[in-house]
Amino acid sequence: MPVAKPAHATWTDDQWSAITRGGQNMLVAAAAGSGKTAVLVERIIRKIASSEEPMDADRLLVATFTKAAAAEMKERIREALEGELVKSPDSDHLRRQLALMNRASITTLHSFCMEVIQKYFQLVPLDPGFRIANETEAELMRQDVLEEQVEELYETGGVDGRFWRLAESFGGERNDDVLFSLIQNLYDFSRSHPWPEAWLLQTAKSFEMETLEELEESEWFLAIRSDVRMELRGALDSLRQALKLAESPGGPKPYAANLQDDLALIGYLLEVADGERWEHLYHAFQGAGFGKLKPCKADETDKAVQDQVKALREQAKKQLVSIRDELFEREPAEYLRELTALAPLMQELVRIVISFGAKYAEAKTEKGLVDFADLEHFCLQILRSPDSTPDQLLPSEAAEQYRERFMEVLLDEYQDTNMVQEAIVELISREGAGNRFMVGDVKQSIYRFRLADPGLFLAKYKSFAEQETKGLRIDLARNFRSRAEIVDGVNFIFKQLMNENVAEINYDQRAELVCGATYPTGAETGYQDYAVEMLLYNRGANAADDDEDDELSDANGTSSADSLDSDEGSGAPTDSALSDLRELATAELEAELITLQIRKLLALDGGDRPFQVYDKRTKGMRSGSFRDIVILLRATQAWSPVMMERLRAAGIPAYAELSTGYFQATEVEVILSLLKIIDNPYQDIPLAGVLRSPLYAFTAEELAQIRIAGTASASGATGGQGFYGAVLQALEPDPEHTPLGDTPYRLSDMLRDRLTAFTERLDRWREEARQGSLADLIWNIYRETGYYDLVGGMPGGIQRQANLRALYDRSRQYEATSFRGLFRFLRFIERMQDGGGDLGAARALGEQEDVVRIMSIHKSKGLEFPVVFVAGLSKAFNQSDLKSNFLLHKKLGFGPKFVDTALRLSYPTLPNLAIKRSMRMEMLAEEMRVLYVALTRPKEKLYLVSAVKDLEKQMAKWSAAMEATDWSLPEPMLARARSYLDWLGPALMRHPASITLKQEWGLAVHTPVLMAEEPSRFRIHVLSGGIQADLEAAAGSEGEGEREVLLSYLQQAVPLQKVSETEDKLESQVSSRLNWQYPDAEATGYFTKTTVTEMKRLKTWMPSEEEAEALPVGPAAASNSESAQSSWIRRPRFLEARKLTPAERGIAYHAVMQQLPLSADIDHEVILNEIAAMVEREQLTEEQSNVIDAAVVSDFFRSPLGQALCRSPRVQREIPFSRILEARRVYPDAIDTSSANENILIQGVIDCVFEKEDGGLVLLDYKTDSLHGGDGQAASERYQVQLDLYAEAVEQIWKRPVTEMYLFFFDGARIVEMSKSSDGSGAV
């Protein structure tokens, strides 16, 4: 029975109903700023404090979205109870409720799940001492489990097995990262279902189709058919509008016949699309097309109207062609064959995902851990009866106990729940009329990327309105946050944008906001203008941009095949860089607009008083400050730094909580490099970075001296020891031996002392890393080196110190997990960086600082600000998720592409097409809700900011919206949007405030009748031409200033002003500049770095021998590469091949020749033993060892040359070198050009150089070429250039002559003596 509202109550009628009604399930649709939290708290207090029907606080379950919200709600309830107790000090019931507040279940759903598991852990079963794994720990465990699982699958799967086919189809080209991501994504996605394994199996089973009838009954076909109908209706609307214009005065009347034929065609296709047969639709589209337009007489036709008709018809034509090319290029039977071929791969994928889930669960159980998803699923397992099925959810005894305990279940932010959480709530809620009280706003559901399901809210929103027996729906539409200008503006926009087909909800009268806030007006505010303002910067028609006309291609994709060999990013870095540059230029322009407006608002340049804002504490107006202003962006990663820099340059303090940049911070990179060499000092780049950093401040020249001294101190090659080996060798007291051609080199005493201090401290830190905690080690480094204090004195020192503290804190968090050790910590950091992850710059600013805040729209949800700038409105929506080779959808399941591994091509399958289109529509609905959240944040003033390419063209597009006859914009126009501006532009073109703007741009001036009395107020400003003013200001500097300004705009990709066409005197200069050609064009065809092998090829024009000859092998190579290789790298191809290639044979032979111990008694048995030892040391595989002919190697060592090698006092093998040569010696066609003397870097690896007993140097190179029965002399000729270059390198670097050169061919054990070229230069 309804409770009468007290006369003194300030609650609205709807709020009072939400507070007092009960006895059934209730859904409160609380719009932005409607006071839902206050309503929820008041409902709880009235239930607890009621004297008529007293209820204990612990008999309510109140679930909030965040712990902070739960704590705030609990505190507000406690304060309210204390207030009631003051009124009724003798109330034992109120005292009891205050005592029970600590036990009250006012918490998040995750915390409630934890409570259930702790109480009923024996039912799972789970170790009662379990704890929640943090994100770092869980990620490391998942990676370890997945690596082990995939490695096992490679070993046992068989080359032709399902797993290998799956890896070839959906793995990466270079490694298995893509496959790993797919398995983990599918695992996580399935966990948002109450029955994850059942969903996976059922989804895989849906690919098992045998007939076209099954295909036509599938959800995929139904989704596509619905989408086709919507697009065809859009084409129909465009053609009707074109026909209306064609028949108007001045219109191209001959076009009317063509347009009527086009309308008939689209009408016929719509009729077929309403049917149920794919084949009928396929055949209907095969002959679908528009005819050629009839000619028009120029003197009877208005050219502008004619062009408008053509544009509308072309738009409809593009839609038709897009549908036909994407969906109906292939016959239905072909789609069916693809599904049949994919069915076994989907089954294999599901099997792998389920197996991964089991192995991951086992690993967590061993460590007594659970993750956040486990909390929900374990709780559901406890509350769900064993007799439950995916179609029928039955409560367990534990669930029945909770049903008895909780008199009411109250859920805040209900629009952001998922299906697992819904199942949990259903099991603990009472049956029948129900006892659920759900509060939320589906218009603010913006967490679909976290697998939230707004469909749960929408289903109840519709059903509760249609049948009150299912539940009671109450709409809280009154907004107590914003001024009427904001409320009216939001209503005007979203009445046009939000409809059920595109936005998933109608913005009807019950959804509209009603202004409930009371603000001072008129003289109290100084007659300030609170109208919503749109600031548009016209970038001009020539501005470079990505947002061209082809919306359809981005919207729907393409059905053409994609090459698998074009990896992500392959061939596209230039496009990506240009796109980033254009985006940053746009951000700069918008930042400038915002900067000027803020300076004007706060009167920073003098003049009028600052903008006045209402202060709730003083209940009066005050001057605005920086903290009253916020800039909202859809994504902050790229734009926030630009905005901050521009604002700060203008004297406006600004702050943004960046999500990236932490690992790129210099101070963090230095400490991470130091940690890397503490873990393993044999890492050249981190070691050099630490020595060059302010920690030790070695100069580049000093590092070179260390390398030289280390080389001079070594008795053998140092290539395998790296720079740290050179450091240790440079510190040796006195070298006993020197390499070939070198003389001893000693460091200065001062440099030696500094280097000794470094190595001693490094050794101590390495000992601490082995014995102590990582966090202590990091803090000791800060303390001992003084680096923390040093960075504090640098520019941005506060932020730098915050970053170092964050690294220390994160190491402590890491050690709180089940993992330990520096190596694993660094491994996790590297994996995060490889995956594009970042930790975000450490927070170095308090909440109350007087700064302009820049934040993402998502971060702003639930907050409010006096003045809001919404920027980046023309930034394209992020559709990267739609480009994946494997899409996922809760309802439509898997959406893989069909991959032809033989042709290396991929095609979109029917599921892929259906899911892609559905995901795009869901993305648009989500983006519309994000825009709603942004526009409902301001309390007093809202600015919409956008830089627009070719505003005139855009406005012509937007003006098509004026033909709409009802409030909502046409659905196809909404569905084609690529940015927020594609919605806001057409909406505002229908507002009376746009009349002046339309007059200025020569557009039709009329306002739809529906909007003639529109109460909302907008002001639209168009700015352009600021660049010209900059140029004029620089004109007084003799042209130099103009050049600098022009250069800055070119670097920023900002459009320049047109030069007057009458300035003929500039024509020759412009022509000269545009026709300029680079004078050394031939040099662009030369590589600045090449190899000896490539030079040999240029000389002989013969095919390349094994490229592997230039690669180091054996332990030296392993030590250099081991740290850089990720354990996620795919197996080397030679491990996958059934037969070794010639290059792989060469690698095997070179490895043996490098590792064999040199002694006079090398025979067949010694060689076999060494080969076996190399296999044992994993320097060779079993397959490689089988190709080594030990007899041939033995023959070489029995030869005079082999004996001389064994007797040599000094031998160096696998010697890398680099040299500079002139281009004329490398490229024959460069001899007579200006580039002849350009420097080219040459790199190579010499197989062997040894010193004979008489002191002469012998150069030896091994070849695995097949001689086909020859003596090797002919084959050796093509290696003349190579040997000459090797000899020249040895002689010039070591300053000793090479007296003999030999080639040894393993084919037939042939030794060929070589002589230097007649000119002795080895020139090409």
From TrEMBL:
EC number: 3.1.-.-, 5.6.2.4
Residues annotated for ATP binding in this entry: 30-37
Pfam families in UniProt: PDDEXK_1, UvrD-helicase, UvrD_C
This protein's record includes keyword Nuclease: yes
Xref: InterPro entries: AddA, DNA_helicase_UvrD-like_C, DNA_helicase_UvrD/REP, P-loop_NTPase, PDDEXK-like_dom_sf, PDDEXK_AddAB-type, Restrct_endonuc-II-like, UvrD-like_ATP-bd
Region of interest (Disordered), residue spans: 544-577
Keywords, sorted A to Z: ATP-binding, DNA damage, DNA repair, DNA-binding, Exonuclease, Helicase, Hydrolase, Isomerase, Nuclease, Nucleotide-binding
Cofactor: Mg(2+)
Domain of life of the native organism: Bacteria
GO molecular function: 3'-5' DNA helicase activity; 3'-5' exonuclease activity; ATP binding; ATP hydrolysis activity; double-stranded DNA binding
Any single biological process term in GO: double-strand break repair via homologous recombination
UvrD-like helicase ATP-binding domain location: 9-483
SUPFAM superfamilies associated with the record: P-loop containing nucleoside triphosphate hydrolases (SSF52540), Restriction endonuclease-like (SSF52980)
Catalytic activity: ATP + H2O = ADP + phosphate + H(+); Couples ATP hydrolysis with the unwinding of duplex DNA by translocating in the 3'-5' direction
UniProt cross-references to PANTHER family, sorted A to Z: ATP-DEPENDENT HELICASE_NUCLEASE SUBUNIT A, UVRD / RECB / PCRA DNA HELICASE FAMILY MEMBER
Annotated NCBIfam families: addA_Gpos
Stated name of the protein: ATP-dependent helicase/nuclease subunit A
Species per Swiss-Prot/TrEMBL record: Paenibacillus swuensis
